[in-house]
Request: fold
Amino acid sequence: MHSGRCDINKQPAMTIAKNAMKKIFILLLLFSTVRSFGENGYDLWLRYLPVENQNLLTAYRSDISALIVSGKGDIISSARNELLAGLSAMLAKKPALTQTVSVNGTLITGTAAEIERIYRTNSGELKQAGDEGFIIKSVLINNKNCTVITANSEKGVLYGTFHFLRILQTRQSLHSLNIISAPQLQLRMLNHWDNLNRTVERGYAGFSNWNWHMLPTYMDKRYRDYARANASVGINATVLTNVNANATILTASYLKKVAALADLFRTYGIRVFLTARFSAPVEMGGLPTADPLDPAVQQWWKNKAAEIYQLIPDFGGFLVKANSEGQPGPQNYNRTHADGANMLADAVAPFKGIVIWRAFVYSNEVPEDRHKQAFNEFVPLDGSFRNNVLIQVKNGAIDFMPREPFHPLFGAMPKTQMMMEFQLTQEYLGQGTSLVFLAPLFKETLQSDTWRNGKGSTVEKVVDGSLQSHPFNGMAGVLNIGNDINWCGHPFAQANWYALGRLTWNMNISSEQIADEWLKMTFSKDEHFLSAAKKIMLESRDIILQYSMPLGLHHLITYGSHYGPAPWVDKGARPDWTNVYYHRADSFGVGFNRTSTGSNALGQYAPEVQDLWKNPAACDEKYLLWFHHISWSQKMKSGRSLWEELCYQYYTGAARMKQVQLEWNKLKPFVDTDRFEQVRMLLQVQYDEAIWWRNSCVLYFQTFSGMPIPAGYEKPDQTLEFYKSLKFPFAPG
Reply:
């Protein structure tokens, strides 16, 4: 009789193999189930999923059968690690590492100098690639079909590596590649408004990514993944601290913590910057003054710069917010912005550092329209700043509104280097609850014509320096990331981080292409999904404009938290911290008169731009109430009165938001359950907010127009007093 015990050593080999295969199949099935039910967004757009199409997989494996990575630098090591991880995951096969070209499908990476023994790169192409660009080419070496990723620098090789992996992620052909790509901007930067206690000003994705208490000994895995994500879209600089600066970051103990991050980020081509509190010499150094013309103050900053560069040799420099919203600055000592910026610029100049001086300034003591104050303060200083100073200018003159005309400073200071500041954190665009793709906002600003050097003098040409022949340029994005598992809170907020990086590399790339790439890498490559999801993304900003601040209305948000509508706010620490200051509604009409009969902020633009907006009958209606105070009964281009048009915009925006919900629900088969449900719930929150915006704003403005809500529109189910009573003391950010 048999004992019933199975002795594995006596099982046939075929049976053992079948059992093993069955276990592998079950594990793969479990893995795919986890993928379909449980993605958390941590991987961002770097998911590196296995290639689904068998024919394409066979082609990719043939095109990448062996790998040569030349060079031993830290950045090359990052490129090698990324290639091995990405290729192994997508091809389900680790390419063989080799030193010579002996088979078809050899992928060769390294700087042109490193791979010269294998392949000599065309000098003209290398010149086109510049310092940080790259070349990706299909070539024939030793009669073998190969692919080369090369550059003049290790950074270029890293950026080329990520671009090559993006080609695979978006399932494009690897045949006949001939790519030469160079960044349009030199400084491609993120601004973090993170405080040392880990709160994030205007942040909606948890606490700060930087755990200052645990640094420098404990290095969270997120730090490296943050650097990888930035390098993948070409971002090469980061400001770690809030522009409302804390001088503590400049102390010796904290600089060691910064140095630990800088050491890691350097391996991905990223330089670290810090915000500098202008009064630090008083607060930290015990000096009686922070006057930028005082020799002792100048020496204090020179000593501090030397201390920083001793720890961080490639420290980028300082970002400064001064004499704005209560922050200290040179004007405290009757000095100019140029005096302050130049003092700091001289301190970092020996180390090739730069100073970024924000132009977001306005004073409570100046009664002028806030729109005008930065222009009035900075234009007289044109030509006064050092060569290593960049003036960082917000896209518009007020404060990251959902739509603003471009800032009048762009092009108005031909002797001064200027960089763009966009906000990714959606402070005025629904914050962490709303799906709003910001690439169309970025593009709208960059493509605006300043007319400063004739027709075609776009903001883009000011930013890249080509309009006025400036040698240095840059763009920054105020980023919303935190310690939420998916980095950005709302899954779609990741797209704005991605978009900023792609546009700093190439401002000509379209919003549609950015959305297409991001969706393919982050969600799904299914064409049905892509068509519908791209439509949602590309229309999202226009929808939120309609239901929140249409026709040029702006700054209608809740006092303090900026969460939700509150057009009735008429009390604040200063007039321009109220909302009635901006919309100026009365029994006649609504809107801020910024023409020559009002504040004349319009006069700060070139005459050709003034001609576009000075006549209310011809002004683009998207800016109408930004520049004009219009009668409630004024006939609009639609044939409706202004009051009727305002109602139409609010009600149409809310209705479109409902349609977005319906369209997303149809995409359930193409999205993993966790993220589908997360977006579905957030879209319900956003729709509720759209109704809230619609009802409260229509009811409020009705108290001035005295006109009924047009027939056919659902009447608000709450009173204006109900909406006024809503409070949000614990809103994030």
